[in-house]
Amino acid sequence: MPFYEYRCDACNHNFEALQKISDDALVDCPACHQPNLKKLISAAGFRLKGQGWYETDFKSGSKRNLADSGTSDSSTAAAHTCGTGCSH
């Protein structure tokens, strides 16, 4: 089950709630008990790091093993672990 973030427009209370995807959004704030909760959009709760399946699987030909292509120096490649296609 995913965690969802909420913020109350009345008292600015922020909190997370563990809910099923099919559950209705919460409405009442647990801090001030006003019906002013808004569900926030937040980043995913996991990241894919390293030279995992997403970088090498299901690719063919020249697209295979992009991390080992030798296009970056070894110090940058060792410190940078968020995968091919990252913008930083």
From TrEMBL:
Compositionally biased residues, Low complexity: 67-79
Domain of life (superkingdom): Bacteria
Residue ranges of every copy of the Putative regulatory protein FmdB zinc ribbon domain listed in the record: 1-42
Segments of this protein annotated with the region Disordered: 60-88
InterPro entries: Regulatory_FmdB_Zinc_ribbon
Annotated protein name in UniProt: Regulatory-like protein
Organism (species): Methylophaga nitratireducenticrescens
